[in-house]
Each structure stands twice: as structure tokens, then as C-alpha cells.
């Protein structure tokens, strides 16, 4: 459907470290594949599909790519796992009024990412 996230790539330096980080905070399994010079860890959810990508030209960024992941019922559930998994919380759970809640964190590779929930 137009306007929905169809695929995303998050550039990483250490694919194994990044895979472990995302598996730890989201409590999901992520599969590894290789595509030529690239190693990819694939996210597969009902709402979106994407990957962590390590290889030529893949450079993590604090100012470029900025997805908001679905934070589930309470963002604090995921946020409680971020620092233990090696990440850093930049903005704790913040109320957006009628638009729900958001938070911002950094992963183990230096990417700046968001979480969003309706409650």
C-alpha cells in the first residue's frame, strides 16, 4: 500500500553485534544471509520487512536514515532493554498527546532510531 514502509536498510559495521542488539531489544529472531559482498540480517514482521546491512558503502549515521519502529503496548518495555544490549537512550518515552508516544535511541552501530506507540 502506498505510504507504508515496504523495506528498510540499517547500515551496520558489525553485523553479529547489531543482530544481537535488535534481537535483544525486540525479542525476535533475525536471520542472516549473504548477498555478494554484503551480509544482511533480515527483519520480517507483519507490518514491514527490512535488514541490517554490512558491506561496501554501508555507513551508520546519526543524521540520515531515521525509522520509527512500532513500540508495542508500552515503549518502556523495549527501552528497558536498550542499554543492557549496548545501546543508548537519547529521548525517553515522551507523550505526543493525541498522536501517542515516542522515544529515540542509538543502536550499537551509532544509528539514531525511534520508537512509536499509540499508548
Describe, in plain words, how this protein is organized in 3D:
With 119 residues, this protein is α/β, with parallel strands linked by helices. Helix content is 17%, strand content 39%. The protein is built from 2 helices and 8 strands; from the N terminus they run E-H-E-E-E-E-H-E-E-E. It has helices at residues 15-26, 75-82; strands at 7-11, 31-35, 38-44, 49-54, 68-70, 88-95, 101-106, 112-117. It has a 4-stranded mixed sheet with strand order 1-4-3-2. The protein has a 4-stranded mixed sheet with strand order 5-8-7-6. A hairpin with a 2-residue loop joins strand 2 and strand 3. The longest helix has 12 residues, at 15-26. The chain starts with 6 loop residues before the first strand and ends with a strand. The model has no long low-confidence stretch (mean pLDDT 87).
Determine Rg (CA atoms, Å).
14 Å
Helical content band: 10-25%
Mean pLDDT: 87
**Quick one: how many beta strands?**
8
The ordered H/E elements are EHEEEEHEEE
Poorly predicted runs are: none
Class based on secondary structure composition and strand pairing? alpha/beta
The order of strands across the largest sheet is 1-4-3-2
Strand content: 35-45%
The main β sheet shows up as: 4 strands, mixed
* Shape descriptor: globular
Distance between the termini: 25 Å
Q: So how many helices?
A: 2
Amino acid at each position: 500500500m502506498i505510504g507504508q514502509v515496504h523495506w528498510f536498510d540499517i547500515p551496520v559495521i558489525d553485523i553479529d553485534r547489531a543482530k544481537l542488539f535488535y534481537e535483544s531489544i525486540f525479542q525476535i529472531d533475525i536471520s542472516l544471509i549473504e548477498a555478494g559482498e554484503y551480509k544482511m540480517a533480515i527483519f520480517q514482521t507483519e507490518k514491514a520487512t527490512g535488514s541490517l546491512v554490512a558491506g561496501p558503502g554501508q555507513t551508520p549515521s546519526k543524521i540520515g536514515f531515521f525509522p520509527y519502529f512500532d513500540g508495542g503496548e508500552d515503549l518502556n518495555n523495549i527501552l528497558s532493554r536498550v542499554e543492557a544490549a549496548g545501546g543508548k537512550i537519547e529521548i525517553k518515552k515522551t507523550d505526543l498527546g493525541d498522536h501517542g508516544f515516542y522515544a529515540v535511541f542509538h543502536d550499537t552501530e551509532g544509528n539514531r532510531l525511534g520508537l512509536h506507540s499509540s499508548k
